[in-house]
Amino acid sequence: LSDPLFVHLGEMYKVLPTLALLAFAGHAAAFAPSAGLPVRSRAVSGMRLTMDMEPVIRLGTRGSPLALAQAYETRKRLAAAFPDELGKEGEGVQINIINTSGDMTLDKALSEIGGKGLFTKELDVALLGNEVDFCVHSMKDVPTFLPDNTHLETMLPREDTRDAFISPKYKTVEELPEGTIIGSASLRRQAQLLAKNPGIKCVNFRGNVQTRLRKLDDDVVDATLLALAGLKRMDMTDCVTKILDWDEMLPAVAQGAIGIQVRSDDEKTIKYISALNDKDTKICVDCERSFLATLDGSCKTPIAGQAKLVDGKIHFKGLVASPDGSKIFRAERVGEIEDFMEIGRSAGEEIRKEAGEQFFADLMEYVQDIQAANTKPTKQTTAK
Predict the structure, then answer these.
(1) pLDDT of residue 119
(2) pLDDT (tens digit, 9 = 90+) per residue, 209-264?
(3) DSSP-derived pairing of the beta strands 181-183 and 223-227
(4) Would you report the helix, strand and coil content of the chain in percent, each value rounded to 5?
């Protein structure tokens, strides 16, 4: 092992070199923070990746295994681009774990506790407070509007955007019998599943990938869906029963993309981070986020959207659904790549017009009423 790792999360942790070495050799799960830790509003002491070189830039990340895998990928790419300044192994990049509200509250669906921003707001505070120089995000967790004086400078090359169906009992979504219990806190996934098979039951199912798979093994649910990108990044695709194409399950906006947020006036960090940008990924993700922004979407609403570049054109598909899958509105576009923002926006406007503003008003009321998506969504009524 060429990179001993010493984890010191403030007063929360002691130095654990043996555990860190094992974690680095295997899965990043070993240094994910405990679910019982209190939420921090600032960056905790960082994970110093070497003791031979002072940090040149400081990376902020969540502490989940997937988030750490993405942080290591970012560090690796920075080292390859700037070996003289940041070290051949990225010794000059200090990784800081920041606990987020979304990581700490796992017994409720995101739709009930605030949506996407729960995975980023503490990172925003750390960035604006100059406790880290940049933040690495799963882009599907990032709200469409960022704090002032910050922006998304870079997208890394995108992974496979599709969802994976995972079940020890069934091979496809279509063969699920009535009463099958599906573990998923995603209203997007729930709505598309229920549209195909209204007899199934969807229950709240959160936690990191390892936690969800363990619940599946313990027969808590009959099946679940996860982003294939995360499974690939952690070398865990052996658990996949079937990969779902876009016509079976349209992925979330920005799924499979890693984005890097910086302070807009930090020229030093921008110099490093801008060198990693994958232009095609950023075009597609920005198109999708334009669609999302037009619909004012978040984890509170069942919205899906995907763009890809094909033969010099940009192709986009998007949808909005009612949480029970009874209504789905779709839009598609093919256009010039330079029009990527307008393509996303116009697709969103088409759906808003077709669905009508009352649909969105009812949707938001509906989402506020459901209890953590722990049953098949049913509109609550007030007893007389």
Answers:
(1) 59
(2) 888 899 899 999 999 999 999 999 999 999 999 999 999 999 999 999 999 999 99
(3) parallel
(4) 40, 20, 45
Q: 151: left (phi > 0), else alpha (psi -120 to 50), else beta? A: beta
* Spatial distance between the Cα atoms of 343 and 139, rounded to a whole number of angstroms: 19
For the chain, how big is the Rg over CA atoms in Å?
A: 21
List, by residue number, the catalytic residues: 141
Q: Which residues pair with 334 in a beta bridge?
A: 315
The yes-or-no verdict on residue 381 having pLDDT over 80 is: no
User: Which residues does 206 contact at the CB level (< 8 Å), separation at least 6?
Assistant: 106, 107, 108, 109, 110, 185, 212
SS3 call for 22: helix
Q: Hey, how many other C-beta atoms are within 10 angstroms of the C-beta on 145?
A: 9
Residue 265: what residue type? D
Q: How confident is the model at residue 382 (pLDDT cuts 50, 70, 90)?
A: very low
Residue 341 has pLDDT above 50, yes or no: yes
Structure tokens at 290: 């334009």
Supply the pLDDT for residue 100.
65
CB atoms inside a 10 Å sphere around CB 346: 18
